[in-house]
Predict the structure.
Amino acid sequence: MQTFKTIIIDDEENSRNNTKNMLATYCPEIEVIAEASTGMEGKKLIQELNPQVVFCDINMPGMTGLEMIDGLVHRDFCLIFLTAYSEHGINAVKAGAIDYLLKPLLLSELQGAVKKVVKHYEQKGNTGSTANNDKNLVLINHSKGFTLIDYKDIIWLEASDNYTNIYMKNSKKIIASKTLKEFEAILPANVFFRIHRSSLINIDYIKEYSNAEGGTIIMADGTSIQVSKARSQEFTEFLKNKAVAPK
């Protein structure tokens, strides 16, 4: 079994020990080679030891985990953030974290994060590429916590007051506690288009499009969505540009 060199960076000694003990007991794929109590010390260890995995606390005095990651010139490891505060989730995703775990750690979530590490390196080995599929992850806050999903699996999003209904390709529906406007700002503009004030679609899942009466789109899940008159021309141009864009 392949093991992955890992560094734990956390200013709380008890938290470091807990993470290390859980990994040693339940995650044989992980080999902890070093630990640090500050962002500055962690940054130095990363540069010296070239780990494959880094578990990093976000809230640390002096230099936060996010600041430490921002300060790295070269980064070729799987990043897993640890924090007691769920509101940091979206920043963790933007920083390219493969996962984001809330303290106190739950064994199932820790093992799930390790599985993502194993999958990442298996895919990297199979393709010979350094491409990181984890960049596609989006954190979705909801009433029971949060879920990390691949944005490529989103068919379309629907505004619902201060919430958003997210329709996935596996027929799953997620009710997220963010507005559609917030998702529009997060999701890649070359893939998602807001065709109506209440609808944001993934253009890769368009099944049919009719420009009659402003425009109607049939999505891959069979949903019919009206294109607003104000966005009809812009959407047509968007599709044309997308069609001729180099692959």
